């Protein structure tokens, strides 16, 4: 039975500044680097023999993956990068301070944008500071979003899951996915068959690997955060 480790990147500079980050390519803080290295220690101590890693094309996830693999003595593992594992696109909220945005639009509206399953923020205006259409990472991608909800994040994560991750797991490989809070929440929703209401309450702590044991049908049979002191509540295994 394969193992899957879901690792949210360590604290980023915009996590620290409490800004909507999404696809903006910010780096880790010193604390985020320490969290990533600690994640590597925890992965090594788990006793699982990992075979491959998947990550996004954003620096904070890539560096988290590298720092964790280095600390675990696994820097030689193959790593696949794909934009479909990126964080949720926050549209017109991108770059804004969360507290200032709440003061401007009201707590209820911001809560809907942040935590509802299928209500995205307003579109990002093209041609501005955070227009990603000219970024080389996305060359050849014809359907880049201008905003996303968790629902549409899942809709672009799921094809990558089916095409690139499922075959690895079915081949018996143990995988690490170093990505982002919302792309990983999308995977958790899919794996556990969670309802739209249930996934809203699921949180992914930074730099704390969630190790999931899967059965032959890739259904979770057991799961635990490797740093118990920073663990979040886990969904019940699917029936």
Strand-helix topology:
Blueprint: E1 3-8, H1 13-16, H2 30-45, E2 52-55, H3 59-71, E3 79-81, H4 98-105, H5 107-115, H6 150-170, E4 175-179, H7 181-192, H8 196-200, E5 210-214, E6 220-225
Parallel strand pairs: 1-4, 2-3, 2-4
Antiparallel strand pairs: 1-5, 5-6
Helix pairs in contact: 2-3, 4-5, 6-7
Structural notes for this entry:
The protein has 239 residues and is α/β, with parallel strands linked by helices. The chain has helices spanning 13-16, 30-45, 59-71, 98-105, 107-115, 150-170, 181-192, 196-200; strands at 3-8, 52-55, 79-81, 175-179, 210-214, 220-225. The protein has a 6-stranded mixed beta sheet with strand order 3-2-4-1-5-6. Helix 2 (30-45) crosses helix 3 (59-71) and helix 6 (150-170) packs across helix 7 (181-192).
Structural class of the secondary elements?
alpha/beta
Query: How confident overall, as mean pLDDT?
Result: 96
Rough outline: globular
At the fold tier of CATH, the topology name is Rossmann fold
Tell me the distance between the termini. 18 Å
CATH class: Alpha Beta
Helix count, DSSP H or I runs of 4 or more residues: 8
* N-to-C order of helices and strands: EHHEHEHHHEHHEE
| Percent in strands | 5-15%
CATH A-level architecture: 3-Layer(aba) Sandwich
Total of domains: 1
- Overall helicity: 25-40%
Biggest sheet architecture: 6 strands, mixed
Which segments are poorly predicted (pLDDT under 50) over 5 or more consecutive residues? none
Computed CA radius of gyration, to the nearest angstrom: 17 Å
How many strand units? 6
CATH level 4 superfamily: Phosphoglycerate mutase-like
Going across the major beta sheet, what is the strand order?
A: 3-2-4-1-5-6
């Amino acid at each position: 039975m394969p193992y899957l480790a879901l690792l949210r990147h360590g604290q980023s500079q915009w996590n620290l500044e409490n800004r909507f980050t999404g696809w903006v390519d910010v780096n880790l803080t010193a604390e985020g680097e320490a969290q990533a290295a600690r994640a590597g220690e925890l992965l090594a101590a788990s006793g699982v023999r990992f075979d491959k890693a998947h990550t996004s094309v954003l620096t904070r996830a890539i560096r988290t993956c590298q720092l964790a693999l280095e600390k675990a003595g696994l820097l030689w593992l193959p790593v696949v990068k794909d934009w479909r594992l990126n964080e949720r696109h926050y549209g017109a909220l991108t770059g804004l301070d969360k507290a200032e945005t709440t003061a401007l639009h009201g707590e209820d509206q911001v809560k809907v944008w942040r935590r509802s399953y299928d209500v995205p923020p307003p579109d990002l205006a093209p041609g501005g500071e955070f227009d990603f259409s000219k970024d080389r990472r996305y060359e050849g991608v014809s359907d880049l979003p201008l905003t996303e909800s968790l629902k549409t994040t899942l809709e672009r994560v799921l094809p990558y899951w089916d095409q690139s991750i499922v075959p690895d797991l079915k081949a018996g490989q143990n995988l690490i996915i170093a990505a982002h809070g919302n792309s990983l929440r999308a995977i958790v929703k899919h794996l556990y068959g969670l309802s739209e209401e249930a996934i809203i309450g699921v949180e992914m702590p930074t730099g704390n690997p969630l190790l999931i044991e899967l059965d032959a049908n890739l259904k979770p049979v057991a799961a635990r955060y490797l740093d118990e002191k920073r663990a979040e509540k886990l969904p019940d295994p699917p029936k």
